Description:
Layout: H1 14-20, H2 24-35, E1 40-41, E2 47-48, E3 51-52, H3 55-67, E4 71-76, E5 79-84, H4 86-93, H5 96-116
Antiparallel strand pairs: 1-5, 2-3, 4-5
Amino acid sequence: MRPIIHPAITxxxxxxxxxxxxxxxxxxIFMSMAAADCAKPCSAYGEVKNRKLPKSSLSQHIKVLxxxxxxxxxxxxxxxxxTTRCTELADxxxxxxxxxxxxxxxxxxAKRKSKRA
Length: 117
C-alpha cells in the first residue's frame, strides 16, 4: 500500500488552496467534510449536487484537496477516512478558508435566485 502523504502546514500555500477550491465539485466536497462531525470514508462524498461522481473523479478531487493541505486522510482497515484541517488552516491563514467558502455559497445563492426569476 502506498503511504498517504500530507504537506506540513508550513508548506501549505494560498496558491495551492485557491487552486484546490477553484473547482466547484471540490468546494462542495470540502464543505461536506467541514460540516461532518467525524472522519468519513471517501464514499460519503460520492454524490455532489444530486450527481454521482465516478470513483476515479472522486479520488482525484480528494487527492487535490489533500495535496493542497486542506484535508487529512487516514487509513482505517480498507477505508480511507477524511477530515478537514480547518483548525490548522485558521491558525495559519485566519479567515481565508471561511471567506472562500462563504463567497462560494453567496455566489450559488445568487445563481439560484436568478434562475427562479
